[in-house]
Amino acid sequence: MAGTVLPMQPTGAPRAERGHVSPAGGPEVPYAVIEGGRPGLCLLVTAGVHGSEYCSIEAALRLVRRLPEGLAGVITVLPILNVSGFRQRSVYVMPEDGRNLNRMFPGKPDGSASERLAHWLVTEIFPHADAYLDLHGGDLSEALIPFSLFPGGSDASKALATAFGLPVAVSAGGEGYTINAAARIGVPSIIAEVGSNGLWDEAGVVQMTDGIDRVLRHLGMIAGPVPAVDRHHMGAVRGRRRPLVSREGLVGPGGGRRTPGHHPRRVRRHPRDRRLQA
Ligand SMILES: [Zn+2]
User: What domains can be seen in the chain, in order of their start residue?
Assistant: First the structure.
C-alpha cells in the first residue's frame, strides 16, 4: 500500500527514487524524486491533470527516467495525476466526480475526489517546491498551438514562461487553476501546453523536454546558459472564459450553441482569444 508522503526533502546524496503515492484516498499516483549531488532548488513537474494530454505525459515520463548526474537540487515529477482519467481516456474531468481538476484548486480536505487531490497538492506538495511546471496540451477534443500560461502579476512566473521558450506566453487571471494556487503560496509556476487531439509526436515531446531543460538552466539546476529563442509573444487573459467546446457540443462566444454545419471559426484562433481549457 503506497503512503501519502513524497520523499521531496533533500537528503544531500544523489538519488533517483520512483514509486507510487496514494493521495487523499484516491488511486495510486506514480512519482519520481531525482536529487543531484549538489544543493539547489526544488522543481516540481506535474502532468496528466487531464488524462488524455499525451504529449505532456510522455515528456514527464521521460523526466521520471532522468538520472541525478549533473543535477543540483531536487526534481519531483508526478507524471499522471488524474490516473482514472488516463485509464478511461476522459476529456478534462476526473471520472470519480466528473469535475475538471484544473478548476478545483485550492481544493478541500473533505470535498469530492478532485477537490481532495487539489488540496493534497496545495498543502503537501507545492510548499516544498521553488518552482512548478504543470504540463498540458490540447485535450482529445481540442487543437492548439504550443503556449504557456502564467499567473498574472507574478514576475517570477513570467520569467519561467520566458525560459521555457514556447512561442506564446499568456498571462492568465481566474481561479481554480494549479498555477494560481501555487503562485498564491509563493511558488512561481506555469502551465505549458504542447500537442492536442489525443496525439503526440517526437517533435512535440522534444519541445516539452527542451522547455524543461531550459527551466532547469534558468534555475541553476543544470549548468549552462538558457539558449536564446525567437521573440515571444506575450498576451493576457483576464478572468475565466467559457469553453468553446463543451462536452455536449460546440458552443460559441458567450456560450450560445452553434447550429450543425456552422463553421467554428474561432477554434484555431490565437490562444489569447481561445476559450481556456488549460
Ligand atoms: Zn490540460
Answer: 15-268 (3.40.630.10)
Tell me how far apart the alpha carbons of residues 12 and 9 are, in angstroms, rounded to a whole number.
9
**How far is ligand 1, taken at its centre, from the CA of residue 153, in Å?**
22
Q: How far is the CA of 140 from the centre of ligand 1 (A)?
A: 10
* Per-residue pLDDT reduced to its tens digit, 31-77: 999 999 999 999 999 999 999 999 999 999 999 999 999 999 999 99
Q: Whole-model pTM?
A: 0.84
Instruction: Give the pLDDT confidence of 102-121 residue by residue, as tens digits.
Output: 999 999 999 999 999 999 99
Cis peptide before 188 (omega within 30 of 0): no
The grid coordinates listed for 203 are: 517533435
* Calpha distance 237→275 (Å, rounded): 10
Q: By three-state DSSP, how is residue 171 classified?
A: strand
Indicate the helix (H) or strand (E) that contains 47.
strand 38-47
